[in-house]
Amino acid sequence: MTRPLALVTGGMRRLGAAIAGDLADAGYDLALTSHGDGAPEAALAATLQRSAADWHYFPADLSAEGAADRLMHEVVAHFGRAPDLLVNNAALFGQDGWESLSPDTLDAHFRLNLFAPVLLSRALVQAAGGTAQPAIVHIVDQRITNPNGDQLSYTLSKQALAGSVRSLAAAFGHRARVNGVAPGLVIPTDDYDDALMARLNDEMPLGKLPEARAIAEAVLYLAGARHVTGQILFVDGGAHLRSYRRDFMHLGK
């Protein structure tokens, strides 16, 4: 019996690696992309080694013209079939506000955060050829409901990606299911110290920030939810229920 195949963009590091690892444990073969080197981070490497997953790394600059179609062609050629699941996780997270907003910052964010996922989704549906019903999951962001003024190009691009969930679900109809997962703060960077993390956990309506595993669980649910399309699941500790004056990294500083 052929294992299902998942294509995870940005799947070698951080949240993408956590999603890829859980998919491998759940029985998926993996096509993984990144714009960096081809070595998965340590936890993912260990998962891939112990699992039975057949996986392959595809280097890709998804913001480049024609990259989506090239990637899908390479994946189909390598595995001999189209993916059953596409997780659009790769993203650019810049730090501009309205003062520094420019055509260049908008173009860079929209190319990777919106155009690439939409074009990859189209390429997948074309590759599936109407004989299967692949699942597509966009990774968006909880801030789409209560945005602040930080990371403006990023926020605008993620709001557009969230809007594409319903539009693509309607456009593809029975040929693909399209859903989204909206994480909160999951894997902090060096901008977050222990005191700030403690305050942020207390700020969440559920009293706790989500873990990467929770995002992966939501992706797995949507991958198998045969009667669900056009939906966005918020996995954020309830953060989208509140409005924050700044991005989390600035709160309390």
How does this structure look, described?
This protein has a single domain, classed as 3-Layer(aba) Sandwich (Rossmann fold), CATH 3.40.50. Helix content is 41%, strand content 14%. The protein is built from seven helices and seven strands; from the N terminus they run βαβαβαβαβαβααβ. α1 crosses α7 and α3 runs parallel beside α4. The termini are far apart.
Radius of gyration: 18 Å
Number of distinct beta strands:
7
User: In the CATH hierarchy, what is the superfamily?
Assistant: NAD(P)-binding Rossmann-like Domain
Share of residues in strands = 5-15%
- List the strand order in the largest sheet: 3-2-1-4-5-6-7
Number of helices: 7
What's the average pLDDT? 96
> What is the helix content?
40-55%
CATH architecture: 3-Layer(aba) Sandwich
Q: Which stretches are low in confidence, meaning pLDDT under 50 for 5 or more residues running?
A: none
Sheet having the most strands: 7 strands, parallel
Give the overall silhouette: globular
Which structural class fits the helix and strand makeup?
alpha/beta
CATH class membership: Alpha Beta
* CATH structural fold name: Rossmann fold
**Order of SSEs:** EHEHEHEHEHEHHE
Total of domains: 1
Cα distance spanning the termini: 54 Å
